[in-house]
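Long-time lurker, finally posting.

We've been working with ethanolamine-phosphate cytidylyltransferase (Pygocentrus nattereri) and I want a structural starting point before designing mutants. I don't trust myself to interpret raw outputs, so I'm hoping someone here can both generate the structure tokens and explain anything notable. Sequence follows.
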Amino acid sequence: MEYSNENINNVLLHLTKACYCPYGKNYYVCVFAHIRTMCSACNVLRYCYDMVHYGHSNQLRQAKAMGDYLIVGVHTDEEISKHKGPPVFTQAERYKMVRAIKWVDEIVEGAPYVTTLETLDKYICDFCVHGDDITLTVDGKDTYEEVKKSGRYRECKRTQGVSTTDLVGRMLLMTKAHHSNTGTSSQECTKMTCTPAFDLLGPKGHSPWTGVSQFLQTSQKIIQFASGKEPQPGDTIIYVAGAFDLFHIGHVDFLEAVYKLSDKPYVIVGLHFDQEVNRYKGKNYPIMNVHERTLSVLACRYVSEVVIGAPYTVSKDLLDHFKVDLVCHGKTEVFPDRDGSDPYAVPRRKGILRIVDSGNSLTTDDIVQRIIKNRLLFEARNQKKEAKEMAVIQAMKRREEEKSKERAQAVL
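Top reply, 14 upvotes:
Generated this for you. Predicted structure of ethanolamine-phosphate cytidylyltransferase:
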């Protein structure tokens, strides 16, 4: 596909223009996004999917901090397929997943792919927010051009160290280099899982907006995601444990069902360390390491607290420490502990174990199978997207070179 100089120049204009917002403190924020990483290429594979991960949640957290009420527009499957390619999750799944993110006040189902002033006014939004990457239509136009011109556009920082492309690479390459406490060998650290940080033009001519460096957990990031709320008198303290890998709609439905078991629930999620998950799941699971899974779970509105590296067996000491009233597990298989014992023997004996049927049997394995099944379609889609981004990047490079020459001539 050819991209006209006019389209590229319009994109460049709005990428470099500082947008002024004339509104005061009391305003609504509208994020019209397809809730997917704007990724294009890695050095090994070229895939991109619409999985909702902690990077998207962090974008919404930042957007909510800019205003008082956050509305998130979510596109239909048809819109995403037209501009980006086939989505992994259905629109119904994506609607529910976005609603479950605790910073979201409202969603707009079937939001238009191009955000216009008419859309902002329709939902009484003062401005819209997007990450500091670029979003292009199928014909290479900036989807936020109109709102940028009017000064009703703001940007939030892209979360470093996360990319849907990287997550997919972990699935397809079956590496373990991403596990938090596994030593990284030169054989395991593939280009997909250990991609260096990107500069403006990206490595080897690839788009920089989808580069991923190693994710580094910080106490500040955990504080930003955590609720900070202690259990109150009268709360029902509910404990659940698991991998919660590639946090998806199956997890959301389960946690929502657990949350609804009480009028005043305080849900604690115990996350197993990577090596523990790999012991009972096998292959290269978990796809996301424990630090990544921590943020994904903390972003869910049904979760009050997370235990990082929870013991596999739910012991009496754990129940007493957190004053647990109820222990819940889904309909999925319970694997025995290393010594062959039942990890839920204590709560079972105390009569506080409840098996919860969320009505959703979707698993992380199912997500991986969806990706493998459609990998060729996603590769073709990703190549088209990269072509659009690279056209803009090359134009930016040429413009910068021209400015440098003009500055040099001015000095002479």
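Before you design anything, note these points.
Strands lie at 28-32, 69-74, 106-109, 127-131, 153-156, 236-242, 265-271, 305-308, 326-329, 353-355.
The two ends are 41 Å apart (CA to CA).
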